[in-house]
Design goal:
Blueprint lengths: L1 H21 L1 H16 L6 H16 L2 H9 L3 E3 L4 E4 L5 E3 H7 L6 E2 L5 E3 L7 E3 L17 H4 L1
Antiparallel strand pairs: 1-2, 2-3, 4-5, 5-6
Helix pairs in contact: 2-3
Length: 149
């Protein structure tokens, strides 16, 4: 249930965040108008009102950098061997498909482990940097080595 709720909140925030940020300025103006009608009669001069406005605007805009950090942070890290890695899942994505056409199709490891292949186009493949050649079987030497072959 909790996972469903968090995924719902993430999708709603991802789709509605620009609208929420755009509606922040009318809400801020309405709040300042309310403060002016309620608190301004109690302030002795105009300087107090300006200070109150500055505090209200600062308090309202304080979460904006935090929201912007989570909204615009990079989701992929480019690697030196020609692929991008998803920072959250660790999956590899083909750079030639991801950059121009935004295809988010994860790459898969070939059957022998030598290459990472792209799902969207079988021609895109990158060598696996972690692949090690299997060791050769030991070569027998001596007068009876021909029997072991």
């Amino acid at each position: 249930m909790r996972q469903w709720l968090t995924s719902l909140l993430k999708t709603v925030l991802a789709q509605k965040l620009p609208l929420l940020l755009a509606s922040l300025s009318p809400a801020l103006a309405g709040g300042l108008l309310y403060l002016r009608t309620e608190i301004a009669p109690h302030l002795s001069d105009q300087t107090g009102w300006l200070a109150l406005q500055a505090i209200a605007v600062t308090a309202a805009l304080l979460p904006l950098p935090l929201v912007a950090y989570f909204w615009f942070r990079p989701k992929f890290k480019p690697l030196s061997w020609g692929v991008h890695q998803n920072l959250k899942t660790g999956a590899y994505f083909c750079s030639t498909c991801l950059i121009p056409s935004k295809v988010h199709s994860p790459m898969y490891l070939s059957s022998d482990g030598r290459f990472w292949k792209c799902h969207s186009n079988s021609n895109h493949k990158r060598p696996n940097p972690e692949f090690k050649e299997p060791p050769l079987p030991p070569q027998l030497s001596g007068p009876h080595a021909w029997m072991a072959r």
